[in-house]
Amino acid sequence: MKDSFDFIVVGAGSSGCVTVNRLVLEHGARVLLLEAGPSNNNQIIKMPAGTLKMIYGKTPFVKRIRSMPQPSLGGRAIDVAQGNVVGGGSSVNVMLYARGSRLDYDLWDKATGGAGWGWDDLIPYFRRQEGNQRLQNEAHGSEGPLKVSDAPYLIEADSLFLRTMQNLNIPYTDDFNSGNLHGVGLTQSTVYRGRRCSSADAFLSPILNDPRLTLVTSARVNRILFEGTRAVGVEYVVDDITHQASTTGEVILTAGAFVSPQLLMLSGIGPCKHLEEHGIKTLVDSPGVGQNLQDHHVAILSATTKRPIGYFGEDTGLKALKNAIQYFAFKNSGPIGSTGSETMAFVNLDDPEADPDIQIYCIGAMWPTVKRGPTDAVTLMANLVKPLSRGTVKLRSANPADHPEVDLRWLSDPSDRRRMLQSLKYLREIVATAPFSSVIDEIFSPVNQIQSDEALLDYIHQTTESNYHPVGTCRMGQEDDPMSVLTPDLKVKGVQNVRVFDCSMMPIIISANTNATAMAVAEKGVDHMMGKISLRTPGRQTSVSTAESTRS
Ligand SMILES: Cc1cc2nc3c(=O)[nH]c(=O)nc-3n(C[C@H](O)[C@H](O)[C@H](O)COP(=O)(O)OP(=O)(O)OC[C@H]3O[C@@H](n4cnc5c(N)ncnc54)[C@H](O)[C@@H]3O)c2cc1C
């Protein structure tokens, strides 16, 4: 093996960029960062309004993983977009800055036997990373490199949504990220002066010229290399040529919730029967690898409006020209500087006092997948943020170039079906409530004729989409839990010198968007690895109640 490094980090996404930043700047380590996708140096990534074009258009920055046909969705296969570029998800995402609730992280803490993963344990990491342009308090930092700001551009749909939700007794909140998600309000985004602030912008850019960092793009890692059970390097491919790199320290997987378990399995760590099926020699029989897949997904309602209240027409003709001039000549202002998702609400429709399990987005446009000629429109989406259904990631083959076999199993749990149905009905209630009702012309998805529960569920099966938050496939847990893949300090069980710092580590999905948490987890992971913090002695009280603890 030729090149040798102190650490090798696999995947330059949200968690990978944070990991290398801390290793290089704080610990002076020589780090190899391998990223399968290209550089993030592209205008469409930097301009907030470019997001939907990346998610639904054709760019090299997004790869779509097609799921197995889903029996619970009438046999439909789902494409789940993932970042394939420096910055990973944070370079292609909708930039919404969100954290889970206090309870979410306290449930993680419980899953690890109280090892130190509760809300209070994570807050220092969120705060340290955050450069909030409005909030500075015990939950928020304003000096960090990750810029977080209020929406620079609002549309009438935002005002209508905010007022309508308050008419439905949902209280206004000016901060979703204090541990309490309840309410309706304006979102904050990882946007600074009209430009995306990805994990790469915040954490990788400052060290790109540091001689201790070696970044190789368009480099797909195939497997981890072991001597016995000790990781000593990785094998990767650039331009069809296979390379090896070695490390005297550790290999850290930050390749995302689909690829990190795939890489473990390709390296011989996983359910031994499944590895045998693909002719892979088992190094560690770890039955939990690829299990416990969770993802948020949405019920969609789109309606035409009687007059313009959103973004229709802003990207064509003279308006597009005007917006481009405004954006480039006037400090990145106007619609191009907006993420298009400026308001949201978190509710619990069963018990208004309980932790929210539905997130509602209001988007001032027709949803791209809804088949209807372009016109003034608004879309409401209900995101099931506490799903109970669990899917799997398995190997499709022993070939690392093949996507893994993803079985999402959305709505396979009856409670998820019930809550999705209930939330779609609630979206209808929102657009029938003043002042929203005054601008709605026609609800065309789902059309009015779809009324029975059975027909509405069928509509959900045909139209539900990912909110792009897959997690949980290498979950951490207690040492003696046979289904946990990682110890609470994020070491892969059964081997030495391999850790996973990305969204795969979550035992339970958080009830909000996952980018900020991916970054906070990575920084805490580095602190554990470098001995800066140690696991807490079990026994501390958190907010987990007896009733909620049954969810874990
Ligand atoms: C379209 C979209 C919209 C989203 N919107 C939001 C939002 O508005 N707010 C929010 O909080 N969250 C959002 N998310 C989710 C959030 O961005 C992700 O949860 C987060 O980026 C995941 O971080 P990660 O480090 O786990 O993985 P990623 O950021 O996905 O990083 C994995 C990296 O590994 C690379 N990689 C994969 N395989 C290999 C390999 N074999 N070798 C080398 N490199 C490899 C990938 O190219 C990628 O760069 C969105 C995600 C997407 C995809």
UniProtKB/TrEMBL annotation:
Chain positions recorded as FAD binding sites: V85, V221
Q: Which cofactor does it need?
A: FAD
Residues annotated as domain Glucose-methanol-choline oxidoreductase N-terminal:
83-106, 256-270
Which Pfam families has this protein been placed in? GMC_oxred_C, GMC_oxred_N
User: Which Gene Ontology MF annotations are present?
Assistant: flavin adenine dinucleotide binding; oxidoreductase activity, acting on CH-OH group of donors
Keywords of this entry: FAD, Flavoprotein, Oxidoreductase
Which family would the database say this protein is a member of?
Belongs to the GMC oxidoreductase family.
The molecule here is called: GMC family oxidoreductase N-terminal domain-containing protein
Native source species: Pseudomonas reactans
